């Protein structure tokens, strides 16, 4: 509380409605209220406070001290100025409170926005991770399917080849048998022809001998 505030409070308590309070009465009340202040220091502060009060319009002279100057005479409160100052102070306080609330709200909004951004980032990371896992899974399934199809195709080709070989083997055996029989038949025919030629040659030889006899 400033010295001027103490002056205003002193006049409110000890001052008469029309006359107000004198410098000495104000000094005495403040001295009794603030016992730790020296008289010399109080006089200097009180003089400055009263001069400031008169200049700002918070204090004024009553009618009986209208022509008095300095610290003599009496001082009363200018209630209109005080009320206006109180209103201004209240407006300033309200402005401070509003500014504090707005700042607090801005901080809360900033925190909420940060949380929202973090949640969005977390969701985006989760979606990205899920997509990557799905793509990896799909690729793995495709590779597995391709490998299975290749194995199946290889097995089918092997089975087909085995079946073809099994079907062809019985057909080739009789063919080989027929070739052998044919060769044997031709060999026997050759032997028979040779025997016939030999017999013919023998008959021709015997006929010549008979004619000579």
TrEMBL record:
GO MF terms held by the record: DNA binding
Domain spans labelled H15: 1-79
GO CC terms: nucleosome
Xref: SUPFAM superfamilies: Winged helix' DNA-binding domain (SSF46785)
Protein's recorded name: H15 domain-containing protein
InterPro entries, per the entry: Histone_H1/H5_H15, WH-like_DNA-bd_sf, WH_DNA-bd_sf
Gene Ontology annotations of biological process type: nucleosome assembly
Domain of life: Eukaryota
Ranges annotated as spanning the membrane: none
Pfam family, one: Linker_histone
């Amino acid at each position: 509380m400033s010295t001027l505030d103490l002056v205003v409070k002193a006049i409110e308590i000890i001052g008469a409605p029309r006359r107000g309070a004198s410098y000495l009465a104000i000094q005495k009340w403040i001295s009794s209220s603030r016992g730790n202040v020296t008289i010399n220091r109080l006089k200097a502060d009180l003089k400055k406070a009263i001069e400031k009060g008169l200049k700002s319009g918070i204090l004024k002279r009553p009618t009986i001290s209208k022509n008095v100057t300095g610290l003599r005479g009496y001082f009363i409160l200018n209630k209109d100025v005080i009320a206006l100052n109180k209103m201004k102070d209240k407006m300033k306080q309200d402005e401070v409170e509003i500014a504090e609330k707005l700042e607090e709200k801005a901080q809360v909004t900033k925190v909420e926005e940060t949380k929202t951004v973090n949640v969005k980032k977390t969701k985006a990371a989760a979606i990205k991770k899920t997509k990557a896992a799905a793509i990896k899974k799909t690729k793995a399934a495709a590779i597995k399917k391709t490998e299975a199809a290749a194995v199946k195709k290889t097995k089918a080709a092997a089975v087909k080849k085995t079946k073809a070989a099994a079907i062809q083997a019985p057909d080739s055996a009789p063919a080989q048998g027929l070739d052998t029989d044919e060769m044997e038949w031709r060999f026997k025919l050759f032997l028979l022809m040779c025997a016939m030629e030999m017999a013919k040659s023998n008959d021709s030889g015997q006929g010549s001998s008979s004619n000579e006899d």
